[in-house]
Amino acid sequence: MRGPMKFFSIIIAASFLLFSAGWGVGGTAWGQQDKGWTWNVLVVAPEGGWEGNAGKSVHAALSWHEAEIDESGTGVRGHDLRFVYLPSMDEGSAAAASLPADKHTVALLSFAAPEVDRILIGRAATLGVPLMLAGGEDVSFHRADGRLLPFVFGLDLFRDYRSEALAAYAVKTLTPQDHLALMGSRFTVHQEREAKLCQSLLLDAGFMPMPYWVDASVTDTFALLAEEVESSGQGVLVAFMGNMAAKEMWRTFMRTFTPWRLWHCGRPEESFLSFHGMVFADQNLFLEKHGGFQELKRRLWNTRTLQVPDSVAAGRADTLAQWLLQGLNALPGPLESLDRPALLDRLRRVERIPFGNQVLDVNPELQRPRRRQVYILEIRDREYFLLDTLSIQGPAYFSY
After folding, report:
1. Contact at 8 Å (CB) between 213 and 186?
2. Which of 45, 165, 243, 305 is the most buried (most CB within 10 A)?
3. pTM for the structure as a whole
4. Nearest CA among 282, 278, 286 for reference residue 248
């Protein structure tokens, strides 16, 4: 038995030396499986944390992608990808929260609230990684001088898309002979700019909108304007004012029994549900019902038994993951180290990203989708009723 035992000992020793040298089955270096061969993606939790419905759904969608990459055999350009889940943040904690980024960190994904995202922009700039927002409607990607921040990306069109959407709906439902008026608040952060953008779009379409520039805090102004509007007969007033001012304008219309309709260029919040007949434009409110995310929900369950209680949150996570993966896979040359400027360039040129029943192309001049479906809504019986769905292009940066 001495011969067989000696042979067996040699085999064991050789195997030990082989694996100690860092080689595994199939000649794959263990060094390629350590953290140096793994790309990390930091993920900021949505409001409610990872135990809430949105958090569970985001985690499920990203876990699905991580498992698919692990089992592909080739990874992402030969690299593993790991999502690192960070705690939820608020405006008070975001500036000091731990962001464990290093040379292997490829991106920061945020599902947080807008006020947190604004703080993360400054932090991502110092980290040198792309910041990809699951939303971004209320977050500007431009510096004060109008220049685009090169490292911030988002799935939502910026809030001025409503000017484009309401102008497009006017073109579809009104004629240039119909009475159309715009009311904008002077000296406000957004409303004056958005009103002027809408005015420009309507003029280009052949309309002659009557502009009214008001101080939204002076309620007597609304009554005077209502009288002037009413004297013009039936028409549409597009309001670019704060929510309180828009509600006061609606009440003025109701008191004077004017046949004019009020379109509000603001977010359709629950507090508006008693304001019958008011019209809104929104890219997100009906995503759960009309966004087409049920197929993603079925895929995650049927392939990996992953539960998705919030299909829209899962859809946003799935789309951000696909956007990032396309950017990484498009990087040129061998990838021994990550070329972050090249990654930023590729991310702003990605095309055909699935987002429920939409397919998104990235606009490199805005670093957001070129187009999104926008829902035109009217309040009926204390509910938002879908009037129309329009494909709206995000406006170019517009400033006065």
Report:
1. yes
2. 165
3. 0.88
4. 278
Q: 26: pLDDT confidence band, cut at 50, 70 and 90?
A: very low
Quick one: angle between helices 294-304 and 311-329, nearest 10?
80
Strand order in the sheet with 131-133: 80-86, 38-44, 105-110, 131-133, 152-154
pLDDT tens across 288-303, in order? 999 999 999 999 999 9
Torsion angle of alpha carbons 285, 249, 394, 148, nearest 10°? -110
Cα(388)–Cα(143) distance, integer angstroms: 34
Contacts of 228 (CB under 8 A, 6+ apart): none
Q: Whose CA is closest to 121, among 141, 100, 146?
A: 141
In degrees and rounded to multiples of 5, residue 325 shows phi and psi of -65, -40
Token pair, residue 342, equals 């090249």
Tokens of 147: 């220049």
